[in-house]
Amino acid sequence: MESIKIKDKTFVPFIKESEIKERVKAVAERINHDMAGKNPLLLAVLNGSFMFAADLMRELTIPCEISFVKLASYQGTTSTGKIKEVIGINEDLTNRTIIIVEDIIESGLTMKRMIETLGTRNPESVHICTLFQKPELLKVELDIEYVAMVIPNDFIVGYGLDYDQQGRQLKDVYTLLSE
User: Fold this and answer.
1) 3-state secondary structure the chain
2) pTM > 0.85
3) How far is the C-alpha of 177 from the C-alpha of 171, rounded, in Å?
4) Is 49:21 a contact under the CB 8 Å cutoff?
5) Which of 35, 78, 97, 131 makes an SS bond possible with 52, Cβ 3.0 to 4.6 Å?
């Protein structure tokens, strides 16, 4: 892994694909244990979580379903703080066990909005699963049950995460080189 350039920014290696896969497998094992006997609906938040959701689902051994929701709060390398729902949920969530699958949780505002939206649809329970969490940035109280990795407050790309829609296809995760 060498440094890479995406648009006007330089990124350096941060987390190898093999470590990500190990952490995804560990989270899947916990979900398999906790959700035994249930048929949870995974709600993957697009665009960033698509790789994580696919790898997570491949490691699950319990019956489960998947659907996608798209919420946007980013522009460039910073969160706009304004969250708008782009693609909604079409499934009946009444009495369903829901696992929200997110790529990264920073302020928690997007997740809070998502949980509020889901709450109006009468699910049995809502659980949060994220690939990355930046605890020092959390602005709201959330019960994040499944966290694959806790990371520092660095801007990252790869494994589904992007910089201005670029870099999602990278297998490894890279962090922004300080300028």
Assistant:
1) CCCEEECCEEEEEEECHHHHHHHHHHHHHHHHHHCCCCCCEEEEEECCCHHHHHHHHHHCCCCCEEEEEEEEEEECCEEEEEEEEEECCCCCCCCCEEEEEEEEECCCHHHHHHHHHHHCCCCCEEEEEEEEECHHHCCCCCCCCEEEEECCCCCEEECCECECCECCCCCCEEEECCC
2) yes
3) 18
4) no
5) 131
Token pair 């990264």 is at which residue? 104
Tokens of 73: 């709060």
Long-range CB contacts (< 8 A, 24+ apart) of 2-6?
Answer: 3/174, 3/177, 4/167, 4/170, 4/174, 6/157, 6/163, 6/164, 6/166, 6/167
- pLDDT at residue 78 above 70? no
Q: What pLDDT shows up at residue 85?
A: 57
